[in-house]
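User: Can you help me understand a structure? I only have the sequence.
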Amino acid sequence: MPSVAIVRPGATPASGPASTCRFLRRRRSRASVGVCPQRSRKVFDRWLGEENPLRRAISAMGRSVSASSSSVVKVLYQSTDIPHLQSIERALADVTGDIDVSYSSGRYLEFNARGVNKGAGLLRLARELGVDPADTIAVGDNWNDWPMIRDAGLGACVANAVADMKPRCDYVCEATCDESAVAEVIERFVLGRG
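Assistant: Let's start by predicting it. Here is the structure, written out as tokens:
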């Protein structure tokens, strides 16, 4: 069943919206997560109207200067119907200009505050470790990985990555994510065995 999660600071999301809510309830967290099950597209389409929680949360996130100044840091919509997720992204285009929008796991449409992405995380980690970003490698499979792949010195994707992303990568693995693609990249580019 599709669902929407609105994650505010302090949350530690688990594997999905329902897991996040269970995690937060068990810990009596001060974080706030709204999960809104959607039984039909008709219900969700009404929810996309101008005065709905999702539109307001995403709009507020986009107006914030940084993730730390927003009360919302992530909005996640879950459905295995990718064309429907794409229609949601299009329907919210008027409020997502300053937001990072990505897809992951073949079921998530993610809205993050600008700069809250894997690429920013890679660059921050490299800076804190004193590593030149040109000396980093990233491997991914979906659009939520793209900022990291783009910002790495070598950006690779696994064989079963989303098709549209493959031509943009420096290297496309022969192996899938289930077949040791990361080991393939390490052997070829770090150990020089490829």
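Now, to help you interpret it: Residues 173 and 184 are 7 Å apart (CA to CA). The longest helix spans residues 118-129. Let me know which part you'd like to focus on.
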